[in-house]
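Hi R.,

Here's the chain you asked about this morning:
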Amino acid sequence: MNNKALVLFSGGQDSTTCLAWALDRYQYVETIGFSYGQRHAVELTCREQVIEQLRLQFPDWSARLGNDHMLDLSVLGQISDTALTQDKAIEFEQSGLPNTFVPGRNLLFFNFAAALAYRRGLEVLVGGMCETDYSGYPDCRDNTLKSLQVSLSLGLDRPMVIETPLMWIDKEKTWHMASTLGGPALVQLIEEYTHTCYLGDREHRHPWGYGCNQCPACDLRRKGYELYQSAHANH
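And the predicted structure, written out as tokens:
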């Protein structure tokens, strides 16, 4: 039975929900974040606040929550000409993918996370990738991560499990999962402290949290929240 996990934690809604999922499920959990020159680098500040609030508000989870690790992957920003790493408008490329796609990002993240997990004796890697309501990023797909799990396990000569609890659920159900795991307190924590907006907007507060309310990430978060609230109101 695997009981130690490493959560890829950005400070966003999805990874915070995944962190709560892991804390509910495993005896010991550590977190890892990446600074890669992202425009929405404000999430790196938010992630510290989210961890602090989780520790304060959820004592049972706090007892299971171990070290947080931050890795400098600025080299990724150097080779990525994207709207997430450069000051450019968000639009769709000829490939059909939005220019917020950072090629190889999740592949790199998992490789570094696996190396750290190996050294720390952690058996499970948890990520917030989702194939249900996403922008089509190929490195978020289930088959990509299944094959990566095999490659990492072979390359490290140690079983390395990749868990993606949000893979087959939409944003409404992600809000609902948070509510199931941590009740209204966790939903409010996600609203107030997590960051999703691609443009890094922390000035404008909406019922679902801070953001520009225009970018694809805000759009998904807002629509999911509204559906969650209306479903909640009908119960």
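The first helix runs from residue 13 to 25.

Let me know if you need anything else.
M.
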